[in-house]
Every structure is written in structure tokens, then in C-alpha cells.
Amino acid sequence: MSTDTVMPYDEALERFEPVLGLETHVELGTASKMFCGCQAEFGAPPNTNVCPVCLALPGGLPTANVKAIESTIRIGLALNCSIAEWCRFARKNYFYPDMPKNYQISQYDEPLCFDGYLDVEVNGKTVRIEIERVHLEEDTGKSTHVGGATGRIQGADYSIVDYNRAGIPLVEIVTKPIPGTDRLAPEVARAYVTELREVLRTLNVSDVRMEEGSMRSDVNVSLMPRGSSEWGTRTETKNVNSLRSVERAVHSEIERQAAILADGGRIIQETRHFHENTGTTTSGRSKEEAQDYRYFPEPDLVPIAPDVAWVAELKAAMPELPRLRRKRLQQEWGVSDLDMEAMHNNDAIGLVEATVAAGAPPADARKWWMGELSRRANEAGIPLSELLITPDQIARVCAMVAGGALNDKLARQVLEGVLNGEGSPDEVVAARGLQIVNDEGELLAIIDQVLAGNADAAEKVRSGKIAAVGALVGGVMKASRGKADAGRARELLLEKLGVSE
Amino acid sequence: MSLIHKSAADLGALIASGEVSAVEVAQAHLDRIAAVEPQVNAFLHVDAETTLEQARVVDARRAAGEDLGPLAGVPIAHKDVFTTKDMPTTAGSKILEGWRPPYDATVTRRLREAGLVILGKTNLDEFAMGSSTENSAYGTTHNPWDLSRIPGGSSGGSSAAVAAYEAPLSTGTDTGGSIRQPAAVTGIVGMKPTYGGSSRYGVIAFASSLDTPGPFARNVMDAALLHEAFSGHDVMDSTSVDAPVPSVVEAARNADVAGLRIGVVKEFGGDGYQPGVLARFHETVELLESMGAKVFEVSCPSFDVALPAYYLIAPSECSSNLARFDAMRYGLRVGDDGTRSAEEVMALTRAQGFGPEVKRRIILGTYALSSGYYDAYYGQAQKVRTLIARDFEAAFQQVDVLISPTTPTTAFAIGERADDPLAMYLADLCTIPANLAGNAAISVPCGLADEDGLPVGLQIMAPVLGDDRCYRVGAAVEKALEARWGGSLLSKAPAL
């Protein structure tokens, strides 16, 4: 892998202005494929969800999945798009072994949804991302290249193809060029993909797993010199498989392109691949000689003409969209803009909401998810939602703390136990013996023991240096392995030593 | 009269009454096939045992008291573009040699369910591209009237099989005339239903927006019975019309043209038309008038540019439709010796697997769809298509049906136009407009040309979903002409 010269980000931004564009593909979660009745599930044994249509056997014909059309229209509505009253599928012609028909049924100049926008929050500021189009198409099969160093087709010994994915409905969401983001370009890109993912999740049209490829964002970046209004040549970066990667890919393309331009070079219009391990991109297929896809209207399918009343019905039945929901929750929870944005960026809002719904006070729910649990998730390198703990369990721990059965320190141990798979919070408390010591007799015995072993400190307290009681309380907590109620221990210690505050 | 000379309707009735068994009928046709195939070469695949087994099943269903349709037990031959799960399907191409589909086309399936017994698969121009069957990768079919002549195309195997009494019924597909032209030059009946009136599911595609499955038979009623048996909405074909099937059998029974307004297409006739063809056509016009029809001359000016528009649209669609033949999943694979890339194997396979006419059209279509040429070629052709539909619409304001000769000439000699694609394309001059507009159209025999004693066809065109009008007029013409001839035109054909 060649290493590109890069210009440090700050310098790059001083000299150039970035223009972004994002193309996002989303696999819809329909029961069946886009143009045939095959199941569209993920992870079936290779080449088992196939039929004459999606294998492109001679004579096979597509019929459009109405549910997929409905989902696409709902996405368009959520993104404030106009919905076409009449549009067609088109064939995109090119040969590739994992595309059975050697053309992809897609949409060309007549997308189902067009001219919309999505507002996102970055650093407490609202940025409006204009949406060019939302269209419906089919996915290709999946090639696996065996042998060779890179896992790419070049240099492979042979390739195998799984057609299960061929024909899965795919929605493509394309933004208009996004100028004016300045040095926040990486954050804006990430915020857009984050918000889009949340919208799609709210609509319940896809499982939007970037890691599994059910949501894939291609990141377009170009630079223009400061003061210029003429956009530069863009690159399209693929293989961006997480929110963090979206941000890193933009960052690294800006640094790479700036170095080339500053050196008098020119940017090649090409597809680039993002590498998770290095955070950089390398050149893929060059688009210099633009492929001629020979688009033409798909003659095997009748045009789509969504009934106006039906579209109105879908619009009326829209769920509360994430941005409005966040505004409402922020008010209900009484948290600051920045706290809210932090929760949003950590994908914690839904978890906090569910925890509150399970009975926890909002402040506690937020504290655990954004504190201890975020730390654990970061350590494990996984999103919060993949921690092996449920909002119900967090709510139970909150209840135990509120009821005095646990303190914060014990609560953290309970969480650790749950995360380790030791069972429910109650099971962990029982198994690890983490109940706060509420038995006065037991506590007094420990106090006697601590006083006997710390005569100096006891004497200081007796002589009026009340601050020295802290060391004694610490001794009680240590002897009880954290299970004592520290407040009560302090009271009892002072009482025993005959001093009052 | 031997079994093979009977109509499909009569065979159906005989089997229904138990006078003959489906097995006997199938065997009689298998014997005929064995006798004349060496001369005719209508079939690409015949499998007597599979055929007889189907016939035995029909006999058993009948014996069990099942209520079967009017064509149960009647044999049929399918053009080799209809997938059949018990027989190979090749589209007349080397690229699909030996391919056995895992599924039945909707037409095949519906006819199976109606109890028709499949005799085999018939020859055609490769991927239905041609007008003579000379483009088949498996040899040319011969016209039963004159074995040195072509049987028409692309469904030439299906027309020859019916004309040679090898089958009472057959299926074809009509993209630019591939049913009507072969029917005309072999002296039988061939019908192109309204586009979308018959399902394309399981029919190997040539040009999706034009391909229309339809029936061949030796008389109008038989064609109507077959038409009705496989028609109707099919959820597997998005372009299938979701409307009631016009009652074509009823129309064939009501053979009457009194008071009907008939338009003669002004643009079809004159230079380039064989005098014997025009003579029979004009006699038929007079006949219709004598039967009480009102005949008008109707001008459809855009029909003059139908042929060039067709030769942009059909190749464009085929260039995309035929992309799936890439050696990956089925059919021929050339050069896969472990050293070549998938791309190279695809290219080698397509170079060897497709014949010259198919390649010509793929190249033509690829060019017409290319960026920078699209508007001038494909886009312009689509506009012509709209104009043709408008001409039809205007014409059908004035008349109930339009008529013309089906083809400008009778069957030409094998080899005569093989090296001249443009001359070959002219065979579809009169049939193409109905494909571009999606109309219904039928060809019925209207006599023999004086020059060569070969059959001439009359084309009757009706509006979209007006299929019944084709049968009504066709049956009336047939009745009057057969009365004049003292029997069917086909009975005048030399014995094989």
C-alpha cells in the first residue's frame, strides 16, 4: 500500500474549502426480494434463496415488491422529498459475475423521491443537508475472492458467488453537494449519516447495520482553493463501515487532496477504498473513462404511479421523527443541548429512553449509559447497544440504589457482573453478596474492630479533630468490602467516640 | 380422415367422448413426425416417451371422471423459447444447447393444466431473430408447400409443424411478425394477441416490450380455443394485462362481417409487393364487401417508418436481455481452463455461442443505447412508436378493423436472402406496426399466388384488447373462402 503525502488538517483547511456529498445505500428489511418471491433474510446458506427470476434464468421476469416501494416512499417523506406521481425503473447495463442479468434494475432520471432535506445538529448548530434523490434498486450477489493477498479480484486464484443477496431491495439516498461545512466537514458527514440512520431506524425499514453492510455510505469529497467558487474534482470513498469511519474518511481525504493540490497536482476522479486500520484511503477503480451504463427504461416492469391518496395516508401515519423526538425528550429530561448531542453521538438516546420507560429517573439513566457503560463499550470497542445489558436491568440497578440497597460503588460491581454474564442484577447481588450492610449489629462489630486497630485516629477524633473520622469511615468500608452504608457508619463512629458535629 | 388431419376441436371432442384415447392421438402424431421430419425439420426436440406419458395422464384423469377442457388430450408443439421442465429449451442457440429449465413458462403450465400433450419443441431463428429459421443454430426448417422454401420465422418450426400435420396446434412468439408471417407463408392461421394479453413469464426474451406469445392452428376456431386456453392475467408478468380475456372462441363462432367497417391500410401495397399477393388481397377485400362489410381506405402515414424504428427498439432491448448469457450459471462455457478470467470466459463464450444475426443485433442495440446516441436512436424510435399508436387510434375511430397483406411476398427460397439482412427485414414490413403499438392482429390464409402457387396471408388488425374482432373477421373470411375453394387452403398443399 503506497503512503500518500498529506497536509496537516489545520493547514489544509486554511488553504482549501471542502465540498461533501454522500451516497447511502440501504438494504430494506422486506420479507421478500425486490423482484421475486425469494426470502430476503441475512445469513442463509449460500445460494439457497434463489429462483429463476433472481438467478436470471432464461425467461425469468421481475415483478416489483410493493412493500419496498412503500418503504422508499416513506423514506422520501421522512426526508421531506417530493414523491413522483409517475416514474419508471431503468436498466443499468454492465457485465459483472455477481450480477445475474448483467444489468441492474435501478432508477435513472425518474427517481421515486426527489428534492428533500435533512437537518442535523453539529456543535449545537443546525446544518441543512439537501437531498437530491431517493431511488429504489436491487442489490447484486456477493463475490468472495479466494487466494491472493488482498481479498480483491486482482490476484485471486478463483472467486465464488453467493446469489442470496442478488435482488435484495436497495434504496439509494443521494445528497446534493454540501458546501460551507468548512473545518467541520468530517463532523457534518458523520452527523448526517448518524441522523439518517436514526430516521431509517425510526421508520423501521431496515436494520441499518453498517458493519454488516445493510447500510453503506460512500463519501464524496472535493476541495477548492479559498476564495474560489469553482468546485474541484471529487473522489468517491467506499468501504466506510462505521460512523467513526465516515468522519475519518473525510478527514483523511481532505489531508490527501490538499497535499496534491498544494503541490500543483490534480485530483483524479476515482473510487477510493477506506482502510479501517490506517484511517486512510487507497485508489480503487478509476472513473476517468466513465463507464457507459446504457440506461434505458426497464421494459419488463410497468411504471410506478403511486396513488396520491395512498402517499397522503403514508404521510399521515409517519412516526415521530428523531429530531422532533430528541427535542421532546430533551425537554422531558431537562438536559442541556450539549448533553443531548453527546447522547445522540453515542447512540444512547434510545437506551436512555427505554431505561426511563422502565422506571429510572432520567438523570440516573443518562449517568449510567454515558458514564460507566460508555467507558465499558469504548474499552470493548463496541457500540453501547451491543453491551450485554438491557435498559430494564439498568433501571433495576437504579431502583436498588434509590432504595438504599446499593451505593454507587456496589452498583458498578453489579453492572460488571451483569456485563460478565453472571445473570440479572438481583442474581449478581445475591451471588456476589453485594447487599449494603444494614444490620446495625454487624456494623457495630466492624466499628469496634476498626476502632481497636486505629487507636491514634480514634484519639484525634475524641480530641475534637472531627475530620479524622474520614480515615475511620474508610476503614469500615474496607473491612466491609464496600457493603457498609458510609453515612450511617460515620454517625455511629462519632456517637461511639462521644463527639457531635 | 386420419387423426392427424382432424382439427384440434374435433380431436378434443373425440377424446372427450372416449372414441379415441389421448395416447392414440399422440401416437398418430409421433408417427407423422417420424415420417416427415427428415424433410421438414420442424422440431429441435421430440421425446416420444415423455409425450406418451403425458397422454396417459390425460386418459387417466378422464377415466377418473375429471372435467377437462375442450383441448384435453390434444397434442401441441411449443416454440423452443417456452421453458419446459421436462424438455430442453435452447432458443435455437448454441449458447443454450442442452439446457433443461427447472420451471415451466406460464403458457406451458396453463396448457399442461388444460390437458394438452406436448409433442416437442420447434425450431426457430436464434433467439427469435429472423424471418426464415435460417438463423437457427440447428439447421433450417423447410416449408411443407415447397421444401426448397423457408417456412417463415422466427416461429418457422411451429408453422411448419402445423402445416405438415405433425401437430394440430403450436405456440409461437411474435415480436415483429414472428407468428403472422410464418402462418401466412405456410397457409395456416397465426395470431398475435394484444401485448400483455398472454404471459411472457418463462418465454426467453428477445425484445421485452414487443414479445407476444400466440397460437398457430389450421383453422380460426382452433386458434381461438388455444388462445383462450393460455390467456389471462399472470402475476408473474408485470406487463400482463389485468383485464378479462376477450371472448375469442365466441367471436370465432360468430363469423359475420355484415355492417362492419373495414379499413384497407393505404401504405401497404404497391412497389415491392408480389403481384400474386396483391391480387389475392384485393379479391379478399371484394369478398368482404360482398359479405356486407363497408370498406374504406385508411392512411397511417407513420407506418412507413415503423420498420426502422423497430430495428432500433428491438435490438436495444435484446442487447440488454441477452447479457445474461455469460457462461456463469447455465449453458455453454468456453475457455474455462483455469488460466482465464471470468471476463475472458464470458467474452469467448458469447463469441462462440451466438450466431451472426444475434451478434449484429446486440451490436446495433448497444450502439443505439450508447451515451450520446441514445436520443438520436432509441429516443427517436420511441417517438415514432407513439406516432404509430396514434395512427392506429385515429384509424380505429373510423373503422373496426384494419386489413393488409400479412407479408409483401410468398415464401422465398432458402438462401435467397440469407446474405442480405435488409431484404430479410422487409418480410415484416406489414406486421411490425401492430407490435410497436401493442395491438391484436391475425393472419388467415387468403389463397395462392399465381406466380408460384404458394400461400398468401390476410392480416386483420384490431385495437388493443380487440382480439375478438380478429377472430370474428378471420372466421368469416375463412368460411367464405373455404366455401369457394371447396375445403381448406392447406388441403391443396402437395403431399409430403
From TrEMBL, chain A:
<dbReference type="InterPro" id="IPR014746">
    <property type="entry name" value="Gln_synth/guanido_kin_cat_dom"/>
</dbReference>
<feature type="domain" description="Asn/Gln amidotransferase">
    <location>
        <begin position="350"/>
        <end position="497"/>
    </location>
</feature>
<dbReference type="InterPro" id="IPR006075">
    <property type="entry name" value="Asn/Gln-tRNA_Trfase_suB/E_cat"/>
</dbReference>
<keyword id="KW-0808">Transferase</keyword>
<dbReference type="GO" id="GO:0050566">
    <property type="term" value="F:asparaginyl-tRNA synthase (glutamine-hydrolyzing) activity"/>
</dbReference>
<comment type="similarity">
    <text>Belongs to the GatB/GatE family. GatB subfamily.</text>
</comment>
<comment type="function">
    <text>Allows the formation of correctly charged Asn-tRNA(Asn) or Gln-tRNA(Gln) through the transamidation of misacylated Asp-tRNA(Asn) or Glu-tRNA(Gln) in organisms which lack either or both of asparaginyl-tRNA or glutaminyl-tRNA synthetases. The reaction takes place in the presence of glutamine and ATP through an activated phospho-Asp-tRNA(Asn) or phospho-Glu-tRNA(Gln).</text>
</comment>
<dbReference type="InterPro" id="IPR003789">
    <property type="entry name" value="Asn/Gln_tRNA_amidoTrase-B-like"/>
</dbReference>
<dbReference type="GO" id="GO:0050567">
    <property type="term" value="F:glutaminyl-tRNA synthase (glutamine-hydrolyzing) activity"/>
</dbReference>
<keyword id="KW-0547">Nucleotide-binding</keyword>
<protein>
    <recommendedName>
        <fullName>Aspartyl/glutamyl-tRNA(Asn/Gln) amidotransferase subunit B</fullName>
        <ecNumber>6.3.5.-</ecNumber>
    </recommendedName>
</protein>
<dbReference type="GO" id="GO:0006412">
    <property type="term" value="P:translation"/>
</dbReference>
<comment type="subunit">
    <text>Heterotrimer of A, B and C subunits.</text>
</comment>
<keyword id="KW-0436">Ligase</keyword>
<keyword id="KW-0648">Protein biosynthesis</keyword>
<dbReference type="GO" id="GO:0016740">
    <property type="term" value="F:transferase activity"/>
</dbReference>
<keyword id="KW-0067">ATP-binding</keyword>
<dbReference type="GO" id="GO:0005524">
    <property type="term" value="F:ATP binding"/>
</dbReference>
<dbReference type="InterPro" id="IPR017959">
    <property type="entry name" value="Asn/Gln-tRNA_amidoTrfase_suB/E"/>
</dbReference>
<dbReference type="InterPro" id="IPR017958">
    <property type="entry name" value="Gln-tRNA_amidoTrfase_suB_CS"/>
</dbReference>
<dbReference type="InterPro" id="IPR018027">
    <property type="entry name" value="Asn/Gln_amidotransferase"/>
</dbReference>
<dbReference type="InterPro" id="IPR004413">
    <property type="entry name" value="GatB"/>
</dbReference>
Automatic annotation (TrEMBL), chain B:
<dbReference type="InterPro" id="IPR023631">
    <property type="entry name" value="Amidase_dom"/>
</dbReference>
<dbReference type="GO" id="GO:0006412">
    <property type="term" value="P:translation"/>
</dbReference>
<feature type="active site" description="Acyl-ester intermediate">
    <location>
        <position position="178"/>
    </location>
</feature>
<feature type="domain" description="Amidase">
    <location>
        <begin position="24"/>
        <end position="470"/>
    </location>
</feature>
<protein>
    <recommendedName>
        <fullName>Glutamyl-tRNA(Gln) amidotransferase subunit A</fullName>
        <ecNumber>6.3.5.7</ecNumber>
    </recommendedName>
</protein>
<dbReference type="Pfam" id="PF01425">
    <property type="entry name" value="Amidase"/>
</dbReference>
<comment type="similarity">
    <text>Belongs to the amidase family. GatA subfamily.</text>
</comment>
<keyword id="KW-0547">Nucleotide-binding</keyword>
<dbReference type="GO" id="GO:0050567">
    <property type="term" value="F:glutaminyl-tRNA synthase (glutamine-hydrolyzing) activity"/>
</dbReference>
<comment type="subunit">
    <text>Heterotrimer of A, B and C subunits.</text>
</comment>
<keyword id="KW-0648">Protein biosynthesis</keyword>
<dbReference type="GO" id="GO:0016740">
    <property type="term" value="F:transferase activity"/>
</dbReference>
<dbReference type="InterPro" id="IPR000120">
    <property type="entry name" value="Amidase"/>
</dbReference>
<dbReference type="GO" id="GO:0005524">
    <property type="term" value="F:ATP binding"/>
</dbReference>
<keyword id="KW-0436">Ligase</keyword>
<feature type="active site" description="Charge relay system">
    <location>
        <position position="154"/>
    </location>
</feature>
<feature type="active site" description="Charge relay system">
    <location>
        <position position="79"/>
    </location>
</feature>
<dbReference type="InterPro" id="IPR036928">
    <property type="entry name" value="AS_sf"/>
</dbReference>
<dbReference type="GO" id="GO:0030956">
    <property type="term" value="C:glutamyl-tRNA(Gln) amidotransferase complex"/>
</dbReference>
<dbReference type="InterPro" id="IPR020556">
    <property type="entry name" value="Amidase_CS"/>
</dbReference>
<keyword id="KW-0067">ATP-binding</keyword>
<dbReference type="InterPro" id="IPR004412">
    <property type="entry name" value="GatA"/>
</dbReference>
